[in-house]
Write a structure and sequence with these properties.
CATH architecture: 2-Layer Sandwich
Number of strands: 13
Number of helices: 5
CATH topology: Alpha-Beta Plaits
Shape: globular
Oligomer: single chain
């Protein structure tokens, strides 16, 4: 069973160079923690971490403990936490087995984008996306997933885009997904003020680290 995780962390602006230096020297042993793939992204003072585990939960600090000293503690709970979870609110496809989910190419490139949603529109956004997800499974990048924390969304994709008919049926047999999808979605977003093009919604962010394991016979190699 493959489990997908997404977390975010914050750091002091002046720490980014040392964080990048450590990341560049980091050799993450994915086999030891049963991780299939891992990607780390950066935007301003925020890190976004996406990874997939095989048959177990692995905490971000178990993978990237080397940068823990340079991360801010996140308030909200009694225990200190450096990474906060982002939750899956939409995916095009989902893992059924290791064989079905493994990457077929060694030339995979991760793509990360972020967007801000109006707080009062979060429930509407999730409603439409769940409807789309369950009425039209497989209608996009096989590995594409949108995660949410408060009103910030992180969209993980891979290049080249893989489209694959899912090995499962969606939960809905209806056909209510709006045909004018972009028009319906547009009012949900807060545009980026520092956009380089008019009405920028999804902002591409920097990739700091990407590691992907190969699988043979259902085992990491």
């Amino acid at each position: 069973m493959i489990k997908r995780f997404c977390y975010m962390a914050q750091y002091e602006k002046e720490k980014i160079n040392i964080i990048k230096e450590i990341i560049n020297k980091t050799k993450v042993d994915l086999k030891s923690v049963n991780i299939l793939t891992l990607s780390l992204f950066n935007y301003e003072e925020t890190l976004f971490l996406y990874y997939e585990c095989i048959n177990e939960n692995v905490a971000p600090t178990e993978i990237l403990g080397s940068i823990s000293l340079f991360l801010k503690s996140w308030p909200g709970v009694k225990e200190e936490r450096l990474w906060v979870p982002m939750y899956d609110i939409f995916h095009y496809n989902k893992p059924i087995s290791i064989e079905q989910w493994k990457r077929k190419s060694a030339a995979v490139k991760p793509l990360g984008m972020i967007a801000k949603i109006k707080p009062e529109m979060i429930s509407s956004y999730i409603f439409y996306h769940h409807q789309y997800q369950e009425e039209n499974p497989g209608d996009g990048d096989k590995y594409g997933i949108i995660n949410l924390h408060e009103n910030l969304m992180f969209f993980y994709l891979e290049e080249p885009c893989v489209k694959e008919k899912p090995q499962y049926q969606g939960d809905l047999s209806t056909n209510n997904t709006p045909s004018n999808w972009g028009e319906v979605m547009d009012p949900h977003f807060i545009y980026w003020e520092d956009h380089s093009q008019e009405k920028e919604i999804w902002k591409h962010i920097e990739v700091l680290l990407h590691i992907c394991q190969n699988i043979v016979g259902g085992k990491l190699c």
